[in-house]
Amino acid sequence: MTRTVIVFLAYVWCVAVATSRVQSAIVVESAPSSSSTTFTTVSGTYIDANGALHIPASALNSSNVKFRVYSDTGNPSTSTLPTEDLPKIVLDTGGSTGVNYILIIANAPTVGSQTAPYGQAAAGGVNWGGVQEGAYNFQLKGRVLGDLTGPIVVRNLVRLDVDGSMGSASFIEHTGPAGGPHLGHVQVGGSIASNAYVSATHGDVTTLHVLGDMAGHVFSNESNIKSVTVQGTLSGRVWAEKMIDTLSAGAISRWAGQVARGQSGFRARNDDVYAFRLHPDRNNNGIEDVWEVTQNPPISLDNNHNNIPDGCEVVYTVRPCDWNRSDIVSIQVLFDFLASYFAGNGEFNQSGTASMQDSFDFLACFFGLPSPCTRT
């Protein structure tokens, strides 16, 4: 009997220690205004039996406008990455619903913008269970190093970077009112599972960028989709009530090579799909060209603004094997040179006469495109 009691007490102690460690590793802080960079610890937070992190109603008032939640195992000042998961965040009912709150899932003092992601060391944690704001009005911005494992329901999503994937139990719902803020920028470093989705109830879906495959879906229930880019294979649905401005993918599978609006695949209610593109990756770095040259700052330079990394093209004024002055050395350039050569107009090496040496010199230039670039 005594031994049983000792074992039981030891078990209770271990659970208590484990719980306290989870609570101590996850920091919940607040600031009194949107511009304030001075945070204080929120009191009364707790982890429930299901592992969810609760922010109490007593903290949800006009004295606590900006919140940040993060794991203290990370440290931006020393570039130490966080190692702790973030649980699902629950906002307890009973607080002030007339306040425009801010929620930062990062160890950072400012909210930032759609085009400004938090650095990896400032990420809130590894995996994240999501958040449901309930009756409150929150502006959300953050980053996690792992997967999104649960739902996010929020009225104003400014930017969210998920370095991992969106699992089948996860989704993102932007519930802002008609005429309110649009769903901003969502980037997923992995893939989006088939049951996961990203949606805007009333506003636009501004930008969704998926570095892996997208078997899940994206919806704008009453408005537009501005840009969806999938670097891998797109097999999910992309649907907008009004217009789809740009949809691009590395490959498509559901349509078996056929782009079909109004069927399975992508659809705009008004049939206004402005652009569908399968983007090349000429420098073989796993990022489609149009994405890497349009980032701020760009991953690769594109000084002539043709959506081709400068390192993978040969401008006429620099490399003469751009025979047709198309700004890229493609197979068409080779065809055009051969046509000129056999017509007697293939003087390439500036010797003054067209000869067999011109063809040798041109081919040496043509096949001298820098590795690992590919031709299209």
Radius of gyration, whole Å: 27 Å
Mean of all residue-level pLDDT scores: 81
Q: Into which percent range does the helicity of residues fall?
A: 10-25%
Instruction: Look at the helices and sheets and give the structural class.
Output: alpha/beta
Instruction: Give the domain tally.
Output: 2
- Cα distance, first to last residue? 78 Å
What is the strand tally?
22
Please give the structural blueprint.
Elements: H1 2-25, E1 26-31, E2 40-41, E3 46-47, E4 53-55, E5 66-71, E6 89-91, E7 100-105, E8 131-132, E9 137-144, E10 151-154, E11 156-162, E12 171-174, E13 183-188, E14 197-200, E15 205-210, E16 217-220, E17 225-234, E18 238-240, E19 243-252, E20 266-268, E21 272-273, E22 276-278, H2 289-293, H3 331-342, H4 356-366
Parallel strand pairs: 4-6, 5-7, 6-8, 7-9, 8-10, 9-11, 10-12, 11-13, 12-14, 13-15, 14-16, 15-17, 16-18, 17-19, 18-20, 19-21, 19-22
Antiparallel strand pairs: 1-2, 1-5, 3-4
